[in-house]
Amino acid sequence: MTVRHEAGETSRLGRGRFLIGSSLKMYFSRERSVQWSSAVADIVRAHPVTQRQEATVFAIPSFLAVEAVSDAVGDSGV
Q1: Alpha-carbon separation of residue 2 from 6, 75, 77 (angstroms)
Q2: Which of 73, 57, 69 is nearest to 22 (CA)?
Q3: 10-residue stretch averages of pLDDT, the chain, 78 residues long
Q4: Which terminal CB of the chain, N or C, has fewer other CB atoms within 10 Å?
Q5: In 10 A of CB 14, how many CB atoms?
Q6: What is the pLDDT, as a whole number, of residue 58?
Q7: Nearest-10 Cα torsion for 44, 4, 11, 76
Q8: Are strands 55-60 and 18-23 parallel, antiparallel or unpaired?
Q9: Which CA distances in Å does 11 have to 16, 20, 47?
Q10: Which of helix, strand or coil describes residue 78?
Q11: Ramachandran assignment for 53, one of left (phi > 0), alpha (psi -120 to 50 degrees), beta (any other)
Q12: 47: which DSSP letter?
């Protein structure tokens, strides 16, 4: 994916020039992945950097938690 920014620069990362993320596969259970992702989504919704679209935030849950985590982060941009 390539995104064109206001300044004319492009990024293959998505929104903004920073890519911030975490893999939860080895660390959290399904339930803990949902809790953690929901908390991160709340931060992303409110943080000035993500509101200005200067960063892309992602989480990689285990396969069995993908749908639940997707529901938990909703429209936050995670």
Answers
A1: 13, 21, 17
A2: 57
A3: 48 70 86 94 94 90 93 93
A4: N
A5: 17
A6: 92
A7: 20
A8: parallel
A9: 7, 14, 21
A10: coil
A11: left
A12: -
